[in-house]
Amino acid sequence: MSETIIRIEHLYKTFGSGDGRVEALQDIDLDIRKGEIFGIIGLSGAGKSTLVRCMNLLEKPTRGTVTFAGQELTALKEKELRKARRSMSMIFQGFNLLMQRTALQNVCFPLELSGLKGEAGWREKRARELLKIVGLPDKADAYPVQLSGGQKQRVAIARALADEPQVLLCDEATSALDPTTTQAILALLKKINREMGVTVVVITHEMRVVEQICDRVAILDGGMIQEQGNVAEIFSNPRTEAGRRLVMPNGEKIHVLPANRLVRLAFNGATSGEPIIATLAAEQGIKLNIISADTRTIGDKSFGTMVLGLPQDETEAARALIYLREIPGVTAEEVTDLVQ
Ligand SMILES: Nc1ncnc2c1ncn2[C@@H]1O[C@H](COP(=O)(O)OP(=O)(O)OP(=O)(O)O)[C@@H](O)[C@H]1O
Ligand SMILES: [Mg+2]
User: How many angstroms does the Cα of residue 15 sit away from the middle of ligand 1?
Assistant: First the structure.
């Protein structure tokens, strides 16, 4: 297992006091590994932004510790903290560019601030390299108002990379963009992760974002982590209510004859495109009803769940279950709690 770059232990964040008190984060434990793309997904108000701001201590946790690259940030003085923070850049939904500065000057800005990084000529050269990496070599002299949302986010990414961070924290970085631009920005984040070795933390309310680029994911709900693990595992078989709400936003609303037993299949990617239902009918003469299906492709594999109604006949139902349980890459379990 690769080494941990950000470790969060027993972290709590409370805002306000008395009646106005908000427990924004409760007992968060999280390990983010060096070199991975880690997703934190949750609905609005779940505590995502608070959590990401606690990672670089822009928000001071009420309790608990944050350790970055072996250094306990929660124990540092402000000056040391500022230094450590330079290794963790952030990008936002609203891009946060300086409107009076060109793209090039925006990218130069953190280099000016850090004061360590050579003279103006060097800074400009570096900023141009970065604009090239993010695919905007010809927009150096454009002001933010002259750029599209996707282009603004590219400038923001170039700026975030200027100080050679180890971690890039992205708070809803694609939420203001259309689907095609979102894809392009996610592809860029993936490229930066793979080619520059930057660990990426992606905060989002959109499952598709996590599916497309994340290696692991944590589901945040009500200020608590409900489940975490490999994206494929969590999304193909969410174990918590919060997980199911995110993974199956329309809910598995099932209306069937009460007499039918139901079985839920979870696909873990090994059986993409197998015509299971047709094969069962053709080879075994067993007919199953598809009650609901929510399958999708992640990378080049299929994941998701399908709920089937078993035949009324007990023997046939048992045979169907045996068959389904023997399919490699598929978990079949009887469902009793999803009928609504
Ligand atoms: N500075 C603050 N003062 C008081 N309450 C706050 C503050 N910041 C956040 N909160 C509260 O903490 C909870 C979590 O907020 P947070 O912004 O982290 O959610 P989020 O998951 O990022 O939501 P969204 O998806 O809408 O951005 C909310 O109830 C919010 O009202
Ligand atoms: Mg937020």
Answer: 9
Which residues share a beta bridge with 267? 304, 330
Distance 50 CA to ligand 1 centre (A): 6
pLDDT, averaged across the chain: 88
For the stretch 280-295, pLDDT in tens is 888 888 888 777 777 7
Q: What average pLDDT does range 299-314 have in this prediction?
A: 79
Closest approach atom of ligand 1 to CA 47 = 18
21 C-alpha to center of ligand 1: Å?
Answer: 12
- Rounded CA separation 155/158 (Å): 5
For 102, the token pair is 């060109």
State both tokens at 170. Answer: 């992205």
Are 202 and 37 contacting, i.e. CB atoms less than 8 angstroms apart?
A: yes
Indicate if ligand 1 lies below 6 Å from the C-beta of 52.
Answer: no
pTM of the predicted model, to two decimals? 0.78
CA 168 to chain centre: 13
Torsion of CA 250, 255, 256, 262, to 10 degrees: 30
CA distance linking residue 87 with residue 199, whole number of Å: 11
Question: Which 8-state DSSP code applies to residue 56?
Answer: T
Does the beta carbon of 44 sit less than 6 angstroms from any atom of ligand 1? yes
Distance 45 CA to ligand 2 centre (A): 7
Burial of 50 (0-12, 13-18, 19+ CB in 10 A): buried
CA distance 259 to 202: 44
Domains present along the chain, CATH in parentheses: 4-243 (3.40.50.300), 262-335 (3.30.70.260)
Rg (CA), the chain: 24
Mention every residue, 6+ apart, whose C-beta is less than 8 A from residue 331.
Answer: 237, 265, 266, 268
